[in-house]
Every structure is written in structure tokens, then in C-alpha cells.
Design goal:
Elements lengths: L3 H15 L4 H16 L3 E7 L6 E7 L3 H4 L10 H7 L10 E4 L15 E9 L2 E9 L8 H67 L3 H26 L12 H16 L2 E7 L7 H22 L3 E8 L3 E8 L16 H11 L2 E6 L5 E8 L3
Parallel strand pairs: 6-7
Antiparallel strand pairs: 1-2, 1-5, 3-4, 4-5, 7-8, 8-10, 9-10
Length: 377
């Protein structure tokens, strides 16, 4: 039988999780509740990316500086994930207290942490991830603690699955809406292009007779008017649609491919690095940052005359950062006229995402574009 204390803990966690269908909120809620009830300073959650099957840091609370200030240490494999993969964490009796390999050989910035408890997260036999709980004075877990933590893991697993199912249903609706928009765009453009073709055919026929310059000019001007109108309509319609290169890829994979293709076409040496690249991001953020990177690389090729470019992507549970740094001729940002270098378009995209754009440049000193977009409100 569970004690009244355990029932209170589980009831509060269950109620908190039931109030939200947002994955990030569910993860943060669990970390906050567990930290409060078990008097733990630090906790974090690993989840599997459903597309790549790789683990990523999905949420964290009070990471020590050695980990918080160096996200690369929270990349790749570790003891607890290896144990999880091998099935050594399966079952309540096998919740392990593990020496954290990410803090190994570190002295400063660890906050005294060396060990953490690892709680497996499963849903219908499917591996979801691991909940890690850390303390500076870790005690041996009692049978009651193990049972309680395993039940918390079950509650969190259910919340994760529910949030993902909701996200999938929303994504299906978004796909259907995009398909509808695509059909409308196709119909609009098809009609517009047909009208343009008709005007150009008229002008071509008049050129053969060459007897009425005014009528020829009218047909050409009408074609130009229709072309501009349809171009504006196309730009407006596709502005918020997902970037095609992102279909089936993470943002990190798409940016790596963009860097490789640009380097090959433009004879640029491009170094691409990503931290947290397995973390799934909202579609709007992925598309927006991809377009910003495209615009920045176009500017570098067109204006900077650079030979080297560094592109760094960093994703954490709190935000995503993208920096693009070139060794080109640079410019004076305060002297840039409106709409030049595509900066207006970049700013508009980032404002829509709630993010920020910073440009650092000087004549002869290259240019650094820094983008930051929050993932939690």
C-alpha cells in the first residue's frame, strides 16, 4: 500500500501533467514537481527524436555551470543512455544510481554533483527516454523511493505520448492546410501565367505585322503588370510554408547540406557545427532559421567576397542560436540603406518567431550574423 505522502505526490504530479498537452510544459512541470518533493537540486530529461532515433536533451533544471555553459557536454553517449539501450534500466527494481560520465574529470563548475538516478521512460514497450535526478549527497534509494520514482516515470511517459499524439494530429492538420494552400496557389498562378502568355502572344503577333507600336506596347505593359501582380501573390502565399529542403530532415541536417552545396558552388570553405541538432524544433522556427541562413550565405557570396565561413547551430531546451561568420570585406551596419543585404527580410522573419538578430561587422573585418529564438515562453 502506498503511504498518504506518496499518494499526495503522485496526485499533484498527475494533476499538473493533465493540465497541459504541450510537451515542453509537461517536462518542465515534472522536473519542478520532482525537485520539490525529493529535495533535489538538479534534474534533466533525455528523449528520443522520433525521426532520427537519436537522444537529445529535452529539458533541464539547475544544470551545474560545467554542463549549462558547455552544451556540447550534453551531446552524444553516456553511461545512463548506454544502460538504457542495453535494457539495464527496465523495471522499477533496476532504476540505477550512476556516476555521471559527463562530469567525469571535472573539478570546477559541477556544484558537487557526481551521481544521478536514472529512471527509464517507456510507453507500450517503446523507448521514450530517461529521467535523471541528481543530488550532491545522493542516498541509496529505498524500495519505496524506487517504486515512487518508477510511477512518476510512468506518469511522465503517458504525458509525453499524449503530447506527441496531439502534436502529430496538429501536424496532420497543418499538412492538409498546406496542401489546400498549394492547390490554391497552383490555380492562382496557372490563371495568372495563362493571362501573361496571352498578352505576350498578342504582342508577338503584332510584331509580325509591325503596324501598331502602341498596341504592342500596351500588350507588353499588361504582361508586365500581370507578372508583377502574380509574383507578389506567390511570395505572399508561400511566405509561411515549410522550406522544401527541410522535408524529412532536421534543421541541422538541412543546414549541413546547404553548407556543402554552397561550398561546392561558390568555392567557399564552410565549417558547419551543430550542438543539440537532434532536438526537434517547431516547423516555423526550422523554416525561418533555414531561410535566414540562405539569405546570409547569398549576401556573403554577393557582397562579402569571403573565402571562409563558419556556421554554428546550438539548440538547448530553452532556445536555439544560429551564428554565421565570414572573413569577407565587411561593412558599416549603420550605413546600410533599407532593404539592402536582405536584413529587412531577416528581421521580419525573426520578429514573427519572437527572436532577435544581431549584426557585427566593420569594413575589412568580416561579418557575424547572430540569431537567437526562444523555445519556451
Amino acid at each position: 500500500m502506498r503511504t498518504d505522502h506518496e499518494v499526495v505526490i503522485l496526485n499533484e504530479i498527475a494533476q499538473a501533467l493533465n493540465r497541459s498537452i504541450d510537451l515542453d510544459e509537461a517536462l518542465q512541470t515534472t522536473l519542478t514537481q520532482v525537485a520539490a518533493w525529493f529535495d533535489l537540486q538538479t534534474s534533466w530529461i533525455w528523449l528520443r527524436n522520433e525521426q532520427t532515433n537519436a537522444f537529445y536533451l529535452a529539458a533541464a533544471k539547475n544544470l551545474p555551470p560545467a554542463l549549462a555553459d558547455n552544451p556540447a557536454r550534453m551531446e552524444g553517449w553516456c553511461y545512463c543512455l548506454e544502460s538504457y539501450e542495453e535494457g539495464d534500466l527496465e523495471g522499477a527494481a533496476n532504476i540505477n544510481v550512476i556516476t555521471c560520465s559527463r562530469l567525469k574529470n571535472l573539478v570546477k563548475g559541477t556544484g558537487g554533483l557526481r551521481y544521478h538516478a536514472s529512471i527509464p521512460l517507456y510507453a507500450h514497450g517503446k523507448e521514450l527516454g530517461v529521467l535523471n535526478l541528481a543530488s550532491t549527497d545522493w542516498r541509496e534509494l529505498s524500495a519505496d523511493d524506487l517504486r515512487l520514482l518508477y510511477t512518476v516515470g510512468d506518469l511522465l511517459s503517458i504525458a509525453i505520448e499524449r503530447a506527441r499524439l496531439y502534436a502529430h494530429s496538429t501536424a496532420v492538420g497543418a499538412i492538409e492546410e498546406r496542401n489546400r494552400l498549394a492547390r490554391e496557389i497552383h490555380d492562382t498562378l496557372a490563371q495568372g501565367l495563362s493571362a501573361i502568355a496571352l498578352q505576350l502572344e498578342t504582342a508577338d503577333a503584332l510584331l509580325e505585322t509591325a503596324n501598331d507600336p502602341a498596341r504592342i506596347r500596351t500588350a507588353v505593359q499588361q504582361a508586365l503588370h500581370l507578372t508583377r501582380a502574380n509574383l507578389l501573390e506567390a511570395r505572399r502565399s508561400v511566405l509561411d510554408l515549410r522550406a522544401a529542403p527541410l522535408e524529412g530532415r532536421t534543421l541541422a541536417e538541412a543546414l549541413r547540406l546547404l553548407a556543402q552545396e554552397t561550398a561546392a558552388k561558390q568555392a567557399l570553405a564552410i565549417d558547419f557545427q551543430a550542438v543539440g541538432g537532434n532536438q526537434p524544433l517547431p516547423l516555423a522556427i526550422e523554416a525561418g532559421l533555414y531561410r535566414v541562413a540562405q539569405e546570409a550565405l547569398t549576401n556573403i557570396y554577393t557582397h562579402a567576397h569571403a573565402t571562409q565561413v563558419a556556421i554554428h547551430l546550438r539548440c538547448t531546451p530553452a532556445n536555439v542560436e544560429l551564428t554565421i561568420h565570414d572573413n569577407g570585406c565587411g561593412f558599416e551596419p549603420e550605413q546600410v540603406t533599407q532593404n539592402r543585404y536582405g536584413l529587412t527580410g531577416m528581421n521580419e522573419r525573426l520578429r514573427m518567431l519572437g527572436g532577435s538578430l544581431q549584426i557585427e561587422s566593420a569594413a575589412g573585418a568580416g561579418t557575424k550574423v547572430s540569431v537567437a529564438v526562444p523555445l519556451t515562453q
